Amino acid sequence: MTVATRSPGTHGPRVRSGQKAPRRPVNWGRVVAWAALIVLLIVTIFPFYWMLRTSLSNNRALAAEAGSPLPADLTLGAFERVLGMATTEEALAEGGSGASVNFWLYLRNSIVVATVVTIGQVFFCAMAAYAFARLRWPGRDKVFFLFLTALMVPPIFTTLPNFILIRDLGLLNTFAGIVLPTLFMTPFAVFFLRQFFVGLSREIEEAAMIDGAGHARIFFRLIIPMAAAPITTLSILTYINAWNDYMWPLLVGQEENVRVLTVALGVFRSQTPQGSPDWAGLMAATLIAALPVMILFAVLGRRVVNSIGFSGIK
Amino acid sequence: MRRTRVRIAAGAVAVPLVVAACGGGGGGDASADGEITYWLWDANQLPAYEACADAFHESGTDVRVTIEQYGWEDYWDQVTTSLVGGTAPDVFTNHLSRYPQFAAEDQLLAIGEYVERDGIDTSIYHDGLAELWVGQDGQRYGLPKDWDTVAVFYNEEMLADAGLTPEDMAELDWNPDDGGSYEEVIAKLTVDENGNRGDEPDFDPDNVDVYGIGLNSAGEGFGQTEWSMYAFSNGWTHTDQNPWGSEFNYDDPAFVETIDWWRGLIEKGYMPSFEMADAGVSMMEQYGAGNYAMVTEGSWNVSAYVDLEGVDTGLAPTPVGPEGERASMFNGLADSIWAGTDEPEAAWEWVKFLASPECQDIVAEHAVVFPAIEESTERAVDAFAEKDIDIAPFTVHVDEETTYLAPVTDEWAEVSAIMGPTMDSIVSFSSDTDALTEANEQVNALFE
Amino acid sequence: MATQVVPKRAAKASGAVSGRRRRFGDLRVALVFLFPAALGFTVFYLWPTLRGFYLSLTEFSLLGDAEFVGLANFERLIGDPLFWNSLRVTVLYVVINIGVQTVVALALAVLMHRLTTSVTIRGLVLLPYLVANVVVALVWFWMLDYQLGVVNQILDWIGLGRISFFGSETWAIPTIALVNVWRHMGYTALLIFAGLQMIPKYVYEASAIDGASEWRMFWSVTLPLLRPIMALVLILSVIGSFQIFDTVAVTTSGGPVDATRVIYFYIFELAFERFDFGYAAAISVVLFLILGGVAIAQLRMLRAGESDLS
């Protein structure tokens, strides 16, 4: 790529095409760069379109119109099947399995799990971060270092014994079993918030103390509001992770009443009614599974985007 | 994707179908009561067993059965994780290749005492079926529910187009050298994109329109519907003795030449590649779409194939092999009770009912599988006949005593873990059949 | 770790202040604040870690009691071709995944940085990251299907011929690696993008005045200044990359042959499908040691990067 020089700052290519520069030569470097960016964006977006296209297709027609960019035999049948709104006959007619699937239930389960984990984890970790960042007590840094080392332990290493623990507690196939291991803390969350709390100004806190405020009051009234931005960021990240988790709920939450969306999708995938998967139904199900997080993103998108670098680098 | 697993039931629905088993009845003074859960994997059989449950509930028992069904690919994961987690179903459909390991881990209830106490006559079942469920420790871990064999399913219209008749199909012979008349038929049924047939000089094996024979999977170490009928007819068996063999024969020349011939069909363009078999369209759908002219399949799938729209399916027995006989694997399922059940008596009531003529007659009338009880099988034959299906190609093996019992052995999960990848790599041509020698050594090392 | 510098400094400062305080400082309050997290840490991190080490020395089917067998599991592991295969496959995955991901993400970040300030574009780029691994795996599994997949339709149409992406031993790992590149590239690009924003504008202005081309600026300005951020991004992504499981579990289940039997999946299979929990624990101990080694090596690298920056 030989790229022409570009004057820095705000000018350069954005100079108004007026009388001043009537025949500005096309900046091929920029064209190529834009083309590359657009290609990457298409690669990013296309699978989403294909999910949508397939989910709006009739499963039986998919094979015949495998290459068509439009839905094959447009129908909402796949969504009806997945949400349990179609009768067995209707489902079979469109190449579904006829089995009762109920993604409403799995959706509810996912929401319960992700919400509980997020609230618990963020709150408890904020408390711990406060103890590590704002309180003085002997052995503090050693304990913090111990917490940090947990970052090094590969999750599978603790997953195996944790499974036994949850089993022995009789918590298999309960929400408690699914949420407990991440409800109280993750090393990352403690670490992330502590970094913030350390940086907060001590003066306000001390002023509050002189006014007679206790630690609880300082924590709730001062620290949490001052750290609202990083707490929100952490909450979003935690929510996404909890929502997308697969292995743990697969192990401890197989039963239908606590089965979350990711696990349900895996099960749905292995369902082969008289043969190949119900692709249209599967794509409808994946869209449903992806939707809540996308909505969250649409609402809080700017914050997420802007916080990413922050969370990684600080 | 669990395609590497042996597919017993293609008609499989993974999501549990909870069948409300709130039948009528009530009252009665049966000794057992309680609520139990029963698992099975074949969606095709679900209606039959629902009907059994209804009949059971009406029989005056206080036991209430809830049936849950998971697709084959999911079923064994569900069973193992639920055993591990202590949440297994009270009663579940068990497979010959799986139960020895469960028994060895003390997960199955030995039911010999119950059988004796209640005077169950195990001679009503087809020969050999009941004995299969007695473990190496001499304990009984299940009562037989059904049996199955393998046959050739073909597209009648394509057969006629190739100038062949159903009578031709009934008299085929096979050998591992040139495939015999069986391979000739497969070649004739294969058509390339220019309309040339597989036995014509202009045939283009790289651009095939209709394959003579379909491919489901590489068959792992089991090969039930894939290659076992050829290997058996070539004088081969999985193990030195069955049940409870401890020496496997995957390196036997009779097996190696069978596999060489079988995968050779891919090179000749008569059978689809492993990649196609592994893709997202099943063998049945390919067959239904007219891409395969024939397939080798198990009796449990007859109805599903016959019900395919737009295709008329005929049945033929497996070919006569070098030993002068046809062959088919003879597999039988049974219902086992989980050792950890809270309701052993209730579970036993249900198992007893499942294994009784009453229930097996109900299953027979649904014409999906062959019940284990001989007399019920007769009924099933009639029920199939009513659906215009002549299932003689399956029963011929029982009549002519050309059945080979499915291998029953400890450590099947470990055997599969070795043989699954090995067979995949052979059928996909990434290794040669020499790989069987090493694999066999590994398998045999498991039993030392 | 860059972060550890901060607490020490903070601790020193606070030490000076707390001279007049009681010896235990805020210990009582701290215990209250720390209690839930400490409970979670002890029960779900510390205890299972210790127990994991113990279980690796046992024969344990999960059904009976664990039986102590010393180092037998580790001896078995040395002679287990499937273990070595899983390690090889995992490393192959990590190399492809991280290699491609880093290059693509860097390109994406630089393009966004030099071309646009649009938050919408940055949001679009992040979309795949918001979707679960399972969903991503299934969507690509469908798009790459040998017969019906749109990608193979296109390949066929162009005349390149179909590729059995998930079904061939050669393609399976690269395919899974690239699918996960797709999910992570936007996120990684945004991490790098944030690093780019920290590079002062005048650096670019200065080199532009010197007549440097964009291409040269990338090599002489952007890349050197980005080194510490790249190192950090690598640490985050390599460790995560070793944990490949979800994609394999819902697509290939370790096949074809053993081509995608990555270490996480092998452990999972052994523990929960083959009643071989002790051995699974032993393999996870080895994985633990490997990842520990990787992390330490990378921390060294990061330190080198930091000193370079200052």
UniProtKB/TrEMBL annotation, chain A:
Its main location: membrane. It is a multi-pass membrane protein. Belongs to the binding-protein-dependent transport system permease family. InterPro entries: MetI-like, MetI-like_sf. Keywords: Cell membrane, Membrane, Transmembrane, Transmembrane helix, Transport. This is Carbohydrate ABC transporter permease. GO terms for cellular component: plasma membrane. It holds the Pfam family BPD_transp_1. The chain crosses the membrane at residues 31-52, 111-132, 144-166, 178-197, 218-240, 279-300. It is found in: Cell membrane. GO terms for biological process: transmembrane transport. PROSITE patterns: ABC_TM1. The keyword Transmembrane applies. It comes from the Bacteria. The keyword Transmembrane helix applies. Residues 107-300 form the ABC transmembrane type-1 domain. CDD domains: TM_PBP2. Gene3D superfamilies: MetI-like (1.10.3720.10). PANTHER family: ABC TRANSPORTER PERMEASE PROTEIN MG189-RELATED, ABC TRANSPORTER PERMEASE PROTEIN MG189-RELATED-RELATED.
TrEMBL record, chain B:
The keyword Ion transport does not apply. It comes from the Bacteria. Belongs to the bacterial solute-binding protein 1 family. PANTHER family: ARABINOSE-BINDING PROTEIN-RELATED (PTHR43649), SN-GLYCEROL-3-PHOSPHATE-BINDING PERIPLASMIC PROTEIN UGPB (PTHR43649:SF31). Keywords: Signal, Transport. Residues 1-21 form the signal peptide. It is found in: Cell envelope. InterPro entries: Bact_solute-bd_prot1 (IPR050490), SBP (IPR006059). SUPFAM superfamilies: Periplasmic binding protein-like II. Gene3D superfamilies: Periplasmic binding protein-like II. The lineage of its organism: Bacteria, Bacillati, Actinomycetota, Actinomycetes, Jiangellales. This is Sugar ABC transporter substrate-binding protein. GO terms for cellular component: cell envelope.
Automatic annotation (TrEMBL), chain C:
One of its GO terms (biological process) is transmembrane transport. CDD domains: TM_PBP2 (cd06261). The chain crosses the membrane at residues 29-47, 91-112, 124-143, 225-245, 277-297. Its main location: membrane. It is found in: Cell membrane. Residues 83-298 form the ABC transmembrane type-1 domain. Keywords: Cell membrane, Membrane, Transmembrane, Transmembrane helix, Transport. It comes from the Bacteria. This is Sugar ABC transporter permease. It comes from Phytoactinopolyspora halophila. The lineage of its organism: Bacteria, Bacillati, Actinomycetota, Actinomycetes, Jiangellales.
